[in-house]
Amino acid sequence: MQTQRPRRRQVPGRSRRRVRGPRQTRGQRQGWSQRPGPARRPWQPPRPPRAARTRTALARLRALTPPRPTAKRTLDLLLGSALLLLAAPALAAAALALAVRRRPGGVLDRSPRTGPAGRPFVLRSLRTRRLRLDVLSRLPHVVRGELSLVGPEPLAPGDERGTAAGARDWRRELKPGLTGLAQVRRRSTMPWDEADLLDQHYAEHRRTALDLAILAEAVHSPLRRALGGLVRRGQACLSDTDHRLPNYSVAE
Fold first, then answer.
1. How far apart are CA 162 and CA 143, in angstroms?
2. What predicted TM-score, i.e. pTM, was given to this entire model?
3. Which residue, 127, 135, 154, 252, is the most exposed by fewest CB within 10 angstroms?
4. pLDDT 10s digits, 146-190
């Protein structure tokens, strides 16, 4: 007589068929992590050609590189620095003498002026006219690039000569100078507008040779006037009695 196996009690709501999930690999069953695939790059526009990239890089490099100094700036920097070193003892002595005198206003005279491209700056010079030390004391402005050795006269902000029609262009292009064509040619009978015409003529024909000629004239004229004054002073001190022989009389 065969014995029957007892039937398993079926829980209501549960199927007897086992539901299997997705098939796992051996690595997943052992707990290995699956390697992530390569990430997808976002869309980028096509790169320009190599020649275009090179031109763009060179343009950016030129924008970052300071401009090359011109011949005029080189002359201002070299000659201005040399003159400043030579005149430094005289300027220091003059400043010390002015400080001891305690003149009203201080040692330096400060006046606003208009520089290149219409940029304002404060012009500083010694309060003295002897030996043109007031002009030599402006040499630091030349070294810094606010002034030039040769150029038009520095004007105050709002000056009519700087706002006249036709004068704005060449005055904005040129740096004002310690001396210029109008300064070395200045005369008491010069008309009021001739100085502007001389400055404009310099602006149209400026070159290194003209700058050197103006500097030579600016140095030669004060020396010639100083030597002429010494000669006239010596002639005024002399008289005929200084050359007469001993025991000379008018009756003879």
1. 24
2. 0.62
3. 252
4. 999 999 888 888 887 777 666 667 777 788 999 988 888 875 456
